[in-house]
Each structure stands twice: as structure tokens, then as C-alpha cells.
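Hi W., the phosphoenolpyruvate complex you wanted:
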Amino acid sequence: MSEVILKGIPAASGVAFGPAYLLGKEDFIVPARPISENDIPLEIARFEEALIQTRREIIDIQKKIAQEMSSEHAQIFDAHLLVLEDRMLIEEVISRIKKEHLSVEYVFSEELKKYMNVFSNIEDEYLRERVSDINDVGKRILKSLLGKKKSIGLDELTEQLIIVAHDLSPSDTASMHRQNVIAFATDVGSRTSHTAIMAKSLGIPAVVGLEEATFKVKNRDFLIVDGRLGLVIINPDEKTLENYRIEQTKISILKDRFSNIKDLPAQTLDGRKVEIAANLELPEEIPSIISHGAAGIGLYRSEYFYMNRVDLPSEEEHYQAYKFVAEAIHPYSVIIRTLDLGGDKFLSQFEVPKDMHPFLGWRAIRFCLARPDIFKVQLRAILRASVHGKLKLMYPMISGIEELRQANAILNEAREELKREGIPFDDNLDVGVMIEVPSAAMTADLLAKEAAFFSIGTNDLIQYSLAIDRVNEKTAYLYEPAHPGVLRLIKAIIDAGHNQGIWVGMCGEMAGDVNLALLLLGLGLDEFSLPSLVVPQIKQLVRSVTFRQAKDIAYTALGLSTGKEVEEYSKLKLKELAPEINGEER
Ligand code: PEP
Ligand code: MG
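Structure:
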């Protein structure tokens, strides 16, 4: 088998290799389950039983077809029955179970693949077409062996696999077995789609927007996922694999290279101090956030709390979750972003009518303002948890001052209720606004008067200002964080915030882009919130330059006319001022 290279969109850096697991087409994916010597007769008996059951099924179908159609049609199934009698296949399975001490479903699925491969390479057309018969019978036998459950869930993986899927939903990623998922490759999506964000948080490589990955990759194909170049290599040859092994070793050395600055401040050579915080999707990420030296959490995406359950979380559950994070991150602060449902994050608990344009529809603060019953449960819990650490609250998708005031009115109701009930909370809780809608960016001067801080959500800000669907792989090439239009909006937001004396952070993916970090520093950004694994790199970068140098970079970049020019210029400055960030010598 010669190697096949698929090109997609690099979504999360790193390199991984291993067998593929095709989500949604996993009929043949069966984990290699070891068995003991004593289990061998039992496994063989299960195999024989599955063969008998499948035979019965096929004969039943054959009878039905003979009655309803014709005996000629029914004869098609004779070929299926012959597969069940193939001594070579049966004996090979039994002998491997005995020799390798592996479960029958695993050995059978492996043998079946070999068997199908032999047939698909046969010259004779008639025989070649028997592959689909073999496939069909094979599936029946596997189904019988696995019981009703044809496939295994992402939470049940027992070995390390690369997930290949058309798309991954937030509930897929929230429920999957973290240690055993080593990379993602999807047909759809872009750099800021949910899959990309999740992969970065988990520190695993991902390539999205591959368009045809689920057609080209077969279950258990050996894959290399190169998240830096956006490549997926199917059945790589030995030389390619060897090169990637070397690459992977280099990456793991680079990963730890800035661990010595973990406890040092993110301060430029001439004394400008900024905060480098981390984004949190799932509570399991807390140890990584702490170990990478993040100064708190700049974005807690609370919607993950609502996933994979049939009911809505109660106030007590919210409270316990926020209290846990507040205490774990103390003495640093945690910014909890209130529920941002919609777009590519949807909830399963209630029927939300399908929007024609989900990103422009009933989303985030719009949903919360329309459902104060749901919103207030979360607000009360955040207020209650605020006495256990340093919490801050921020609203997503605010488009203008009215929405901020409406949200604050509900927050005030929650405060009043708690006061009446004698429940303590931090009365000075900072309430900030995510700036991710162009109208909010353009009215940031007004919002800054009534907000404690801003956090720029570039994932949405870019999609709304450049009119690019952030999850559509077809338009992904137009998604340009360095676009002059985007840079001007960012500058306007930072300036408006500073004019009112409030700090301005950024929690969109752009904040973790090492190529653009100096530019953002120079524009005056006060806080960067990003995937925890990138924290050391961005901190090192800040510590390698003067604020003066960064300001000069920002000034020059703002004078350029295309995103490409800005990007090239930023990369050049990075290479000149801090080559060690990318593992190069000074
Ligand atoms: C953003 O839009 O930049 C952001 C951080 O929020 P999310 O990606 O969750 O929409
Ligand atoms: Mg957003």
C-alpha cells in the first residue's frame, strides 16, 4: 500500500501517529482486548455461536426474498453463506485467538480486512465484486459478537487512536476518553471551529477541513497527523514515518524548553507587565493550566457544563463547579463567561429551533436574555461562588450597551435575591464584556463606561467583520486575523478601554498565535488568554523584547495594506527578536 497525503487546515499543532478510528463508520473498529488462557475456549465458542446466528439470519432473509421476489434474487445470498463456510478464514481466526490471546471480535475484524483486501485486488471482476458480500457478512458476524452495541463510544476507547470524523460535536469531544485520543482529523471545520479549540486545549494535533478524510481513510489505517502543516498521511512508508519520528522528538524537546520561566512574570525588558492567562473548556485542564504557569483563567467556557446531559444543571451544580475552579486557581482569578449557546455549540436538553444562520441567530446573550429563568440560575451560582476565590464574570456576544444593561438588570435581581436570602457573595465582582461583534467594537467607548474590563473574542469578531463563517472549510482561507480591518478594530477596542481606564484582554485563538503576539503587545493588550500549552511561549516572547520594540511593530503593521503583508512582517520581526520561540538559534 503506497502512502496517500491529504491536505487540510492546520488546527492544532503537533505530530501524532497511530491507527485511525472512523467515528460514525466504526462497524469494524474493535479494540484489541487481551484475554487469558482460560478464556480461549469461551472465545472460540462465541465465534461458533456468532457464525450459527449469522447463518440463521441469512437463511431467514433468503426465504423472505424468495417469497417476496424470486428464488433467483434469493440465490445472491448463497455467496454470503459460502463466506460463513470458508474454512481458511475460520481456522485462521481460531488459531490467532489461541496464539495471540486476543478477543475474537478483534481477531475476526483483522482477518476480515485481510480477506477483503485479497478479494479487492483480484483481476476477475466477478470475484472482485464479492467484496461487498464479504463485507456484509462480516458486519453481521461482528454485530453478533459485539451484541447490540455495534460500535464503541468515544468514552470507551481502550487504545490510543486518531479520531477521523466528518465533524466532531462538542458533546463528542466532551465525552471522549482523553488519554486514548491522540489526534483529530475532520472533513469540515476551520481554525476556530470547536474541534480546533478543543484539540488545542487538550494539547493534541488536529487537522480540519480535509473534505474527504472519511472517504479516503479506512478504519485502522495507520495515519500520521501533522497539525503544523495540516497534513494527514495514510499508510506512510517507512522513510516518512522515520522523518516524523525525528520531528516528534524535536517537538517534545521544544515543548519543555521554557519551563524555567513558569513562575516569572510576563514582563517586557523595559518593565511593561501583562497577564498571560489560560482558556478553560473542561475542569480536567486545571492541572495543565497551573503547571504551565498561567496567571489564572481568562475564559471559562461554561457551556461545556451543559453538554451530555438530559437536564439543565442546577444552581448547586453550577456553584460547586465554579467554587472548585475558583479554589483551584486561587490566588489567580477566573473569568467565567456566561452561557454561550448557539453557533457550533448547542445543547441537548431543550428543543432550540434550528436557525437558518446559527452564528447570526438566537445565540449567547440573546438566548440568555430571552430565558432569564435559565440565565439567573447561572448568575446566582457565580455570585455565590465568588466568595471562594477571585471570580469575574463576562457576557458573550454583546452587541451594544442595551444588552449589557439588560444582562446587568438580571444580575442585580440575582444579587437582591441572595441578599434577601442572607447568602454571601462578593458585591464587587467585576463584570466585563466580550467584544466580538463589530457594533460592540465600534461602540466600545460607550461600553467601557459600564464594564469593568473587555476581552476581545477574535474568533467571532473576525467572522463577523470579514463575513466569514468561522467553521466553514471552504472560506477558511479568507479567515485572516492579521487583516488590516481586524487590526483596526482591535486597536479601537484597546484604545477605548484604556481611555476609560479599564483593562483589555483577548481570549480568541488569535491571542495564542506566536506570530502575532508582539503586534498585540504593541497595540497595548493587557491580558492574553490562550490554550495552556502555549502560555510559556507567549510569556517568553513578552520577556524577550522591550515594549518600545513591540509598539514600533504595531505601528508599522497598522500602516500595511494586506493581511499577508502584516503576517510576513510579524514573522520576520519574531525571527529577528525572539528566534528561540520557534526553536531557532539567536
Ligand atoms: C471568541 O469568539 O473569540 C471566543 C473566545 O469565544 P468562542 O470561541 O467560544 O465563541
Ligand atoms: Mg465567541
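Residues 29 and 491 are 50 Å apart (CA to CA).

W.
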